[in-house]
Amino acid sequence: MKKSLLKVLLCVLVLSLLTSSVALANQEVTVWAWDPAFNLYAMEEAAKIYHEINPDVTINIVETPWDDIQTRLTTAVMAGQTGTLPDIMLIQDNALMKNVIDFPNVFADLTDSGVDFDQFAGFKVGLTSVEGRNYAVPFDNGAAINALRTDVLAEAGYELEDFRDITWSEYITMGKEVLAKTGKPLHSIVAESPDLIMAGLQSAGTWMFDENGDVFIAQNDVLKEVIEVYVELVKSGVMVQVNDWEQYITSFNRGTVAGTINGCWIIGSIVLPEEQKGLWGVTNMPRLERSPNATNYSNQGGSSWTVRADSANKDVAIDFLKHTFAGSVALYETILPSSGALATYLPAGDSPTYAVPHDFFGGQAIYAEITEYASKVPQVKYGVYNYEARDAIGVAIAQVLAGRDIDSALMEAEETVRFLMEF
Amino acid sequence: MVVKARSNLRLETRQSVIGWAFVIPAALLIFVFYFYPIARALVLSFQTGIGANMQFAGLANYRRLLSDNVFKTSLVNVLTFLALQVPVMLTLALALAYMLHDKRLRFRAFFRTAIFLPCATSLVSYSLIFRSMFSLDGFVNALLINLDLITQPINWLANPWTAKIVIVLALTWRWTGYNMIFYLAALQNIDSSIFEAAVIDGAGALSRFFRIAVPMLKPIILLTAIISTNGTLQLFDETYNITNGGPANATISISQYIYRLSFQYSPRFSYAAAISFVVFVLVAVLAMIQMKVGDER
């Protein structure tokens, strides 16, 4: 009796092993990305859509913070173990060029893969290309917005429209009024974070590096104007500096400040407090005055999907991206309402979902507006040495705020970046 | 007699073979995972290039260090922390150990546990808590304002010197207990009859401390000084999590600079390896100086 029971159990075990090995013959595409409310949610919805098209493929999504992705990527390439990397990786746009150039042959060249890059906002395609070849499918929209508390503005006698298409001086003037009448600064920023400076530079079509990749800091008049604006913002009290990211988010969640200027992905954090529903509005960011190509549009952050070049599932991964993020308006319609995930896929912008008024923002059709902003963002080439330049400019800001003159601070920043670029 | 000598030799050989058999696996592991990477890192520091594109370049990285302003700043920062924090911490640990060694003190076990407990915390957790405690609307500012010691909150993390002080406070809080345990153990090895004799001779508490305890603890003080020097020169977690290099690189440490060079900027592992060897030499030199000064053997 016992022996035959044992035989039956063994047969069951062998059978289950066989069926699981048949299941393993299915292709598995691994994805690394961060932010469950945004990127991962979008990936999950994309996986559902692709399952209808190609049921044999499983998409395995692993939540990995951006810093970890960068560290693991570097370590894997240096150790020659690119097999430990996933098939699809979400990469920050400001790090894309660095990773593609520093780690040749790790990222698949998608230029001729069938993905239609004309359907994406121009500035995003620019950010994801290196020497004319595309290395990523553009994803989230970092178009800069100026989100403001309309009720606080009303208290000071202003309307949201007063903040549209303005210059920074007008912003500071109105900000001082708001501060005087309501006691609230217009926005907050993490101390020494150069994000606002970067947004300002891109709004005028320039960057910390020029077309050839040379450092463009000390001679950069736009940068000088941006830093002067920054100092004026802090000194007038219109912008308050906080110590870290959590405090930054808390400052507008608690209503200590009357708004924020950042990439449109900040909307996910703005809509957190229920009691502020209906009290917010969105407009474009202020522009610089002295700079010749100044606009009211810029980009802050944003990331894109890359595919690993030596992956066994490369073609499946590309096919997956082609049918979802680069081809499915339905995907963008699904992810928009629940996560506020705006994308840079232009056909999605024509969808009626994007024109739906948003309750939190007093019925404003913010998505359609932001998609319009995205189409006007000036194109710049980020270059390979962004993180070096970011840190150097962060140091320069702190020095200027402590009293150092802008020219010598920028000179030191340029020297630091040049030093790091050598070899 | 010859037979006995031969069997003794065989016994000796057998014993030494057994001894080696025990030692070799561990030695092999230490060699493979410790000394070999150190040697490879040294080779790496003689190369240059970004990412995986390396070429041999001799002492170029070391020469480059001489003109690296950020490296110099990080070195000065770390030496400042060393000079400010280590003496304060060791003195405090010594005083606390001596007080807690006194058998007449009640709740000694509680105090010992309480002072040692910080060492059991995770470096990242306590750094983040310190950061939130010293923020503009954090606990420390709230306390100081409530006690009427200040009127405006101090922006601890935005001023270079207060940022350094926050790091020193954090380090002291964390590591005093660790060093105190060393001193407590050493104090327990001192025969209590020496102290009793001193009491009979009329020595007060302070002179018992300075003239008996401290000289007898010299070897242990030397040990903790070297360990603390090593730890402070390799400081990373606190500066990364509390101030992230501090206002305008005022608190950046050498290890943090190495991390940035390897993972945040365009990866330059060879240059980072060169910097880590400089730290290695620095720690060795400081340890040798301390031994020369402190070791009586």
What attributes does this structure have?
heterodimer; A: 423 residues; D-Maltodextrin-Binding Protein, domain 2; three-stranded antiparallel sheet; globular; B: mainly alpha; MetI-like fold; 2 domains; two-stranded antiparallel ribbon; 13 helices
Description:
The complex is a heterodimer of chains A (423) and B (297). In chain A, helix 16 (386-401) runs antiparallel to helix 17. Chain A has 423 residues and is of the alpha/beta class. In chain A, strand 1, helix 2 and strand 2 (57-63) form a beta-alpha-beta unit. Chain A contains 17 helices and twelve strands. Helix content of chain B is 74%, strand content 1%. Chain B is flat and about 70 Å long. The longest helix of chain B is centred in the N-terminal third of the chain and has 44 residues, at 2-45. Chain B is mostly helical. Chain B has 13 helices and two strands, in the order H-E-E-H-H-H-H-H-H-H-H-H-H-H-H. Chains A and B meet through helix 3, helix 16 and helix 17 of A and helix 12 of B.
Indicate the topology.
The complex is a heterodimer of chains A (about 425) and B (about 300).
Chain A: H1 2-24, E1 27-33, H2 36-53, E2 57-63, H3 66-78, E3 88-92, H4 93-102, H5 122-127, E4 129-130, E5 133-134, E6 137-138, E7 144-149, H6 150-155, H7 168-182, E8 187-190, H8 195-203, H9 221-236, E9 239-242, H10 245-253, E10 259-263, H11 267-270, E11 280-283, E12 303-307, H12 314-323, H13 329-339, H14 346-349, H15 366-375, H16 386-401, H17 406-421
Parallel strand pairs in A: 1-2, 1-3, 8-9
Antiparallel strand pairs in A: 3-12, 4-5, 6-12, 7-10, 7-11
Helix pairs in contact in A: 2-13, 7-9, 8-9, 16-17
Chain B: H1 2-45, E1 47-48, E2 55-56, H2 60-65, H3 69-101, H4 108-116, H5 123-133, H6 139-146, H7 160-188, H8 192-200, H9 205-216, H10 218-233, H11 237-243, H12 254-264, H13 269-294
Antiparallel strand pairs in B: 1-2
Helix pairs in contact in B: 1-13, 3-7, 3-10, 4-7, 5-11, 7-11, 10-13, 12-13
